[in-house]
Amino acid sequence: MFQLGVHAIISIFIYLVSIGLSFQAVKALQIEEFTRKGRVFETQLLFIFIAIALGYLVASFVINFIDTSMQLSNLF
């Protein structure tokens, strides 16, 4: 039961860090050119959603990679 709690805390931490890093990366894009002028709130919301989606994908990959690599010990 303790391992599930540790796994959950590590997963949440990985999700938050990857969303934060992807938000920093998304800020480098110039999406303002593709949005309408005067739509600041919608553009910021789009940045946040893109960062969450990208961060989720990256974090899912990292967590899945860690889980799979920990199962390699069952091979030997």
Structural features, described:
The chain is mainly α. The protein contains two helices and no strands. It has helices at residues 2-26, 40-71. The longest helix is centred in the C-terminal third of the chain and has 32 residues, at 40-71. It is elongated and about 60 Å long. It starts with a helix and ends in a 5-residue tail after the last helix. The model has no long low-confidence stretch (mean pLDDT 90).
Tally of helical runs: 2
Tell me the helix content.
over 70%
Q: Count the E strands.
A: 0
Low-confidence stretches: none
Q: C-alpha Rg, in Å? A: 17 Å
* DSSP strand content: under 5%
Mean pLDDT across all amino acids: 90
**Largest sheet composition:** none
Give the topology string: H per helix, E per strand.
HH
Content-based structural category? mainly alpha
N- to C-terminal separation?
Answer: 25 Å
Shape: elongated
Write the topology of this structure:
Blueprint: H1 2-26, H2 40-71
Helix pairs in contact: 1-2
From the structure above, extract its key features.
76 residues, mainly alpha, 2 helices, 75% helix, elongated
Concise structural overview:
By secondary structure, the chain is an all-alpha fold. Helix content is 75%, strand content 0%. The longest helix is centred in the last third of the chain and has 32 residues.
